[in-house]
């Protein structure tokens, strides 16, 4: 999510292009980095949140849900909300309890090479609707680094224990009582040490929509969990996910997002006799149809991230190269201009 001031598009008669900025932020306690995220992105998120009717539950219900299901981060959410203590909408938003419908696309996969297990993912959406912010934190005494989604939530990330996680939309529109997935991802990285810990969390915490969560850790344990609001979590010994679960339920979305085509390619690539290396999977994830360039239609690959549990690190990748490598021990702070067009995502 962003503001209109952050976006520049070429003239109407020229080829579509969008200019954005990749922001790298670090902090140990909610302070300047969190303040910048709130200042830059909350106005657009607030407009979306209020236009959609806000949470489907009261702010008090959200606080009670955090206390019941995620008590370890209750104080953290209070500290984050203190950036504007008079904004009731912000406090409700930060609980992610019964939020409006929220869709992303994405592909994700896990493999092994000479450096050990790794998780790679494409985040697919309209680039105008993503924070495009890498945030390294130590908010609760555990170092976490990942891509911001929904201000305090994450779409993917890794912690100091080497637990890596990524989400993708599960291809179902059913909405129920539960938390928004970006907060669940943040919570797992804040409190879990390995895949088994994360499975227990995903079994007990309700999710308000259908999402696919793929995880791996330093031991190489790998799992994909199909979350849904109307059925128990499905624990799959599967090292990839696109945008469906048991089958394609939203036929129009399935065709537009090419979820089956992407799934077939990933399954074939990952079932080879020798596990694909990071370089091989980078090539696959930067190629159609796994990589999408329909930015003018609000659907394209915003970034590719690759996580290494052995070093608790990640690499951010775009069509024309790598933006860099960082671990939870680093202190990334930078701003990198980007361009999105029919040829892909470009570091400038």
Automatic annotation (TrEMBL):
Q: Which residues form the Peptidase C45 hydrolase domain?
A: 114-321
Keyword Transport appears in the UniProt entry: no
Q: Would the keyword Transferase turn up in this protein's UniProt record?
A: yes
Q: Which InterPro entries match?
A: C45_proenzyme-like, Ntn_hydrolases_N, Peptidase_C45_hydrolase
Q: What keywords would UniProt list here?
A: Transferase
Report the superkingdom from the record: Bacteria
Molecular functions per Gene Ontology: transferase activity
State what protein this is by name: Acyl-coenzyme A:6-aminopenicillanic acid acyl-transferase
């Amino acid at each position: 999510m962003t503001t209109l001031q952050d976006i520049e598009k070429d003239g109407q008669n020229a080829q579509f292009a969008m200019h954005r900025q990749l922001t790298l932020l670090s902090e140990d306690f909610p302070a300047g980095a969190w303040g910048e995220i709130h200042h830059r992105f909350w106005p657009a998120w607030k407009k979306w949140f209020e236009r959609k009717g806000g949470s489907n539950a009261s702010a008090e219900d959200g606080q009670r849900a955090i206390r019941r299901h995620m008590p370890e981060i209750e104080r953290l959410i209070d500290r984050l909300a203190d950036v504007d203590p008079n904004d009731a909408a912000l406090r409700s938003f930060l609980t992610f309890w019964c939020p409006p419908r929220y869709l992303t696309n994405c592909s994700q996969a896990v493999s092994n090479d000479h450096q050990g297990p790794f998780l790679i993912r494409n985040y697919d959406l309209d680039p105008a609707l993503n924070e495009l912010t890498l945030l390294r934190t130590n908010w609760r005494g555990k170092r976490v680094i990942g891509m911001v989604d929904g201000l305090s939530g994450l779409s993917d990330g890794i912690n100091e224990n080497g637990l890596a996680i990524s989400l993708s939309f599960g291809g179902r529109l059913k909405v129920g009582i539960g938390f928004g997935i970006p907060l669940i991802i943040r919570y797992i990285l804040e409190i879990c040490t390995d895949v088994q810990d994360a499975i227990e969390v995903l079994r007990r915490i309700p999710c308000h929509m259908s999402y696919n969560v793929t995880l791996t850790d330093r031991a190489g344990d790998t799992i994909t969990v199909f979350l849904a609001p109307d059925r128990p979590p499905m624990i799959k010994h599967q090292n990839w996910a696109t945008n469906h679960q048991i089958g394609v339920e939203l036929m129009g979305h399935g065709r537009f997002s090419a979820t089956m085509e992407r799934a077939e390619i990933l399954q074939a690539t990952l079932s080879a006799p020798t596990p694909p290396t990071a370089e091989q999977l980078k090539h696959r994830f930067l190629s159609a149809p796994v990589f999408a360039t329909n930015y003018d239609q609000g659907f394209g690959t915003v970034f590719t991230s690759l996580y290494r549990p052995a070093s608790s690190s990640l690499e951010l990748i775009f069509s024309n190269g790598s933006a860099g490598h960082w671990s939870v021990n680093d202190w990334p702070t930078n701003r990198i201009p980007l361009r999105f067009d029919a040829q892909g995502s470009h570091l400038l």
